Amino acid sequence: MTDNNARPFDDPANEAPTAPADVPQAEQARIAQLVETLSKEAADYKDRLLRTLADMENLRRRTEREVADSRVYGISNFARDIIAVADNMDRALGALDKELREKADAATKALLDGVELTERELVKVLEKHGVKKFEPLGEKFDPNLHQAMFELPDPTKPAGTVAQVVQPGYMIGERILRPALVAVAKGGPKLAPATANDNADSPSS
């Protein structure tokens, strides 16, 4: 007969877990201090990581801006030399008035047509690379865009407007490559106050 009161084989799974030994108070304090120190170090490392990530993001954005600016404005010096050539071509064409053109023989007219075509093509190439010509005749004088050469008395034009363009200006991207040389009207009616739309206008081409 089997004894129901017999003890089964010893099995670790059947053993009740024993309570850990009490940790001394000094040891608990040391552990708490260690946890606090590690928490502070973890917070410090996290703060450093976030700062580093922010610095890296700022560096990436700054590099992108510099690359974009280099792409747009890197040809500034070259563009200034090219627009000097365009100025010379314009002066050469302007030296021949309508009467001289009409009296010119076929070969001379063909030469003039070729120079005019070359000048137009040069302006197109400059525009393709972000360099835009503007002639602000009739616009309000803007010292950020125009350089006043002299005042021109004219009662028919509003005072403070561009009465004559001595030399056209050029923009490159959103910057002034060369201001327009202008004569400013005086003696005429005063200009109306500038509006928000006027301030938003870009230089005319």
Q: What is the fold's blueprint, element by element?
A:
Blueprint: H1 25-73, H2 76-94, H3 98-103, H4 106-128, E1 131-134, E2 146-153, E3 162-167, E4 169-172, E5 175-178, E6 180-186, H5 196-200
Parallel strand pairs: 2-6
Antiparallel strand pairs: 1-4, 3-6, 4-5
Helix pairs in contact: 2-4
Give a quick rundown of the structure:
The chain is of the alpha+beta class. It has five helices and six strands, in the order ααααββββββα.
Describe, in plain words, how this protein is organized in 3D.
- The protein is α+β, with helices and mostly antiparallel strands.
- The protein has a domain at 130-191: Head domain of nucleotide exchange factor GrpE (Nucleotide Exchange Factor Grpe, Chain A, domain 2, Roll).
- The chain contains 5 helices and 6 strands.
- It has helices at residues 25-73, 76-94, 98-103, 106-128, 196-200; strands at residues 131-134, 146-153, 162-167, 169-172, 175-178, 180-186.
- The strands form 2 sheets. The protein has a 3-stranded antiparallel β-sheet with strand order 1-4-5.
- Strand 4 and strand 5 form a beta hairpin.
- Helix 2 (76-94) packs antiparallel against helix 4 (106-128).
- The longest helix is centred in the first third of the chain and has 49 residues, at 25-73.
- It starts with 24 loop residues before the first helix and ends in a 5-residue tail after the last helix.
- Mean pLDDT is 81; it is low at 16-20.
